[in-house]
Write a structure and sequence with these properties.
Length: 191
């Protein structure tokens, strides 16, 4: 085939790195095992820049199943390079990074109340509840909706020009209410 580049997604952690060491062409990581998801993070950075005009000095809230999310692991990693403040919201007893700083010194705060993390948020990154990775979910769907679902009322706590991102697929009616997810809410843009 003689490709110029290979974009690779694989279930095994480290598979992309392994392949890259054995090829003489660029290998783009589109998600590997339980590691990061760099291509999604780069797409999100481009979307943020296109919608807000910058990727610097932003208040970013990442909400959802952080323990099982490759997207969340990548999103907080380059954040120090673009100078954002990151808030992680732990959904129930699902694990997340600790409050502190990432490798580049960007402040990271972990909170348990969505209302606290949404206050003044410029970017809201909703994560999919990955039920296929949970043997015993820490919360029922009803409790998740009650405590962590992004709805119009909660969205009002964010910056007036806040954007809402979701890596997909969305569990309709679970992570985000339909009016927010479908973009009918004029306060946000979602994908």
């Amino acid at each position: 085939m003689k490709p110029d580049c290979l974009v690779m997604r694989h279930a095994a952690s480290g598979a992309t790195d392994y392949v890259a060491r054995h090829l003489d062409i660029p290998v783009v990581n589109a998600g590997d095992g339980t590691h990061e998801h760099p291509s999604q993070g780069l797409l999100d950075a481009l979307t943020i820049r296109d919608r807000l005009g910058t990727i610097k000095n932003l208040n970013v809230t990442i909400l959802g199943d952080i323990l099982h999310s490759r997207v969340a692991r990548f999103e907080h990693s380059p954040a120090g390079k673009i100078r954002v403040q990151v808030h992680f919201v732990r959904a129930g007893d699902v694990g997340s990074p600790r409050t502190g700083e990432n490798r580049a010194g960007t402040p990271i705060r972990c909170v348990y109340r969505i209302e606290e993390a949404l206050h003044g948020a410029d970017v809201i990154m909703m994560l999919r509840v990955q039920t296929e990775r949970l043997n015993d979910p820490p919360l029922s769907a009803d409790d998740y909706i009650l405590l962590y679902q992004l709805n119009t009322e909660r969205l009002r706590r964010a910056s007036p020009n806040a954007i809402v991102l979701h890596p997909g697929p969305i569990n309709r009616g679970i992570e985000i209410t339909p009016d927010v997810a479908d973009g009918r809410n004029p306060a946000c843009w979602s994908r």
